């Protein structure tokens, strides 16, 4: 990666009793000699790795140093016990860049998770809305069925009890009654948002005729189809 790094190594070594004379006479300054060999191995190995691999494989670096150093130092009466790569310190600018890359990757991953969560919420919201509309439709259908049944019973009952009245006259009376009930309900609350059609008697009669004509046309069309 063409960047500078500092590697902190901890080396544990001891003198081999059988070669104590070599350890005493062969090397004047064993610490400096061991340090020089470590530097040589590290400088030969680390430049062939990129920075990410160095962080991930610092144990392999320590193992390679241990093998090479053990071969050389063993001839001088020393035994290398352990080598630990304590820390890897890149250049401050490189460290800042690595942190920014890591932060960007995490933000990208977080945005993906956030998008998936919003997708799930939208799906659930749509499912709930569809279920609500379905249940609302079922309720409206039942309400209209109940109104139809009630109107039929009222017409039949009124026709039987009041002689000389036709079903049309009873229907007109019921529609007028419902019309005034609607006006009453609207007047009971100041917060109603219902849009109400013109309420003159003539308009009520026109609406009644439109409803009856629509029913008659539907009935005629059904007969023609049959």
Automatic annotation (TrEMBL):
SUPFAM superfamilies: Band 7/SPFH domain. It comes from the Eukaryota. CDD domains: SPFH_like_u4. Residues 1-119 form the Band domain. This is Band 7 domain-containing protein.
């Amino acid at each position: 990666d063409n960047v500078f790094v500092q590697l902190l190594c901890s080396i544990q070594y001891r003198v081999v009793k059988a070669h104590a004379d070599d350890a005493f006479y062969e090397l004047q300054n064993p610490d400096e000699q061991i340090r020089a060999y470590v530097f040589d191995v590290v400088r030969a190995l680390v430049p062939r790795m990129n920075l990410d691999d160095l962080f991930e494989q610092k144990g392999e670096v320590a193992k390679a140093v241990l093998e090479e150093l053990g071969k050389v130092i063993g001839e001088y009466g020393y035994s290398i016990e352990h080598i630990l790569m304590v820390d890897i310190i890149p250049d401050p600018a490189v460290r800042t860049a690595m942190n920014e890359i890591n932060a960007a990757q995490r933000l990208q991953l977080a945005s993906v998770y956030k998008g998936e969560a919003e997708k799930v919420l939208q799906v659930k919201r749509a499912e709930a809305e569809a279920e609500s509309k379905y249940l609302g439709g079922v309720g409206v259908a039942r309400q209209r069925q109940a109104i139809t049944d009630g109107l039929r019973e009222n017409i039949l009952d009124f026709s039987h009890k009041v002689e000389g009245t036709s079903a049309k006259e009873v229907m007109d009376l019921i529609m007028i009654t419902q019309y005034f009930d609607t006006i009453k309900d609207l007047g009971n609350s100041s917060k109603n948002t219902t849009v109400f059609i013109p309420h003159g008697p003539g308009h009520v009669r026109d609406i009644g005729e439109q409803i009856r004509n629509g029913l008659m046309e539907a009935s005629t069309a059904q007969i023609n189809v049959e």
